[in-house]
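If your schedule permits, I should be very grateful for your opinion on a structural question. The matter concerns a single protein, recorded as an amino acid sequence and a row of backbone structure tokens. Could you please explain, in whatever detail you think fit, how the structure tokens follow from the sequence? I set the record out below, with my sincere thanks for your time.

——
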Amino acid sequence: MAISKQAIQKCDVERFNPRKLNDLEAKKQNQIKISNRFAAWENIKENIKTSAKGSVGLYELKQHKLWSDECLRFLDQRKLDKAQWLQQPNQSSVGNINNIRRETSRHIRNKRKEHLKAKIDEFGINSKIKKKYQSLEEGNQ
């Protein structure tokens, strides 16, 4: 049974008459219907967001363990020195800013290394425990 391509297109496609939009009344009515649908969608969207906030809650960002009080103190000092330099720019404050910036970067870089090393050690210990547990299980079987 052969079906022509035109016959398939006639069945699947709904054709609209855009010439009716030339009529001012039909055009306004079409715009109202479209805007009502978008308004309904916005209401649905807001309702979904509110219900999700109520049931699931919002995602809270976790504070990095890397940022100790000492790191925060370095950052605050750097901000204060930069603000002071912006108020009174001179050559000695430029040198001071560069020194503090260098010390802050060095301190944070070292803390980051320590933090990552501790994480690696923690994962290594956990994997060693897991391997020992697996070997004990294999020995019992």
Notes: The longest helix spans residues 91-140. The chain has two domains: 5-55, 69-140.
